[in-house]
Amino acid sequence: MGILDVQNLSVSYDGKTILSDFNFSVSKGEKILIRGKSGIGKSTLFRMIMGFGKYNSGEIFFDGVPIDVINIWDIRKKVTYVSQDTDIAEGKVADLIEEIFSFRANTDKPGKDDMEKTLSELSLSPDILGKDYMKLSGGEKQRVILVLALLSGKDIFLLDEVTAELDAGLKQKVVDMFFDNPHWTVLAISHDREWESKAMKVIDFSAGVN
Description:
Strand 1 (about 5-15) and strand 2 form a beta hairpin. The longest helix is centred in the C-terminal third of the chain and has 13 residues, at about 140-150. The chain has a 5-stranded parallel β-sheet, with helices on both faces. By secondary structure, the chain is of the alpha/beta class. It has a single domain (about 5-205), classed as P-loop containing nucleotide triphosphate hydrolases (Rossmann fold, 3-Layer(aba) Sandwich), CATH 3.40.50.300. The radius of gyration is 17 Å and the shape is globular. It contains 7 helices and 9 strands; from the N terminus they run E-E-E-H-E-E-H-E-H-H-H-E-H-E-H-E.
């Protein structure tokens, strides 16, 4: 088994089948691009892995152990999930960062030097820490969330359209940051071509995944 295995997973909402007998395996260190049209089950897969929903049948294994309500918090301490939603909080960026790293699943709070270095790598000034998060542009919000992900201290990432609001140069920089680290396992949902050039494997949901 890999670091993450999905076996015969079926999910439906309001009578509509989202995933049917889906099978999927990820080895440690793999960099995987997931693509396909909207509503086909890509984001649902990530939410099921993180325990944010119920599935009809099947099992999800993390490092060979079935994920359940008892061990899901242990999984969340090892996996960073970044969703498409960037409107995650109100208040100053610094307060948002403080809140995120107070969560039970986030135990490694970054130091000031690491924070400023990562902000700079994503073309953000330290001044952004004092700004109102909800007044930032879509691209700035996305980069702040990426900073949080990069500083999470975890080595498994589920990234859902995390470069959609960025320009081409920043898209490539983000891809390089996640895909060039040999110790990280990365699953990225994206329509941006920058991810495809470095992905070890591409899974197209539109082509059928059962």
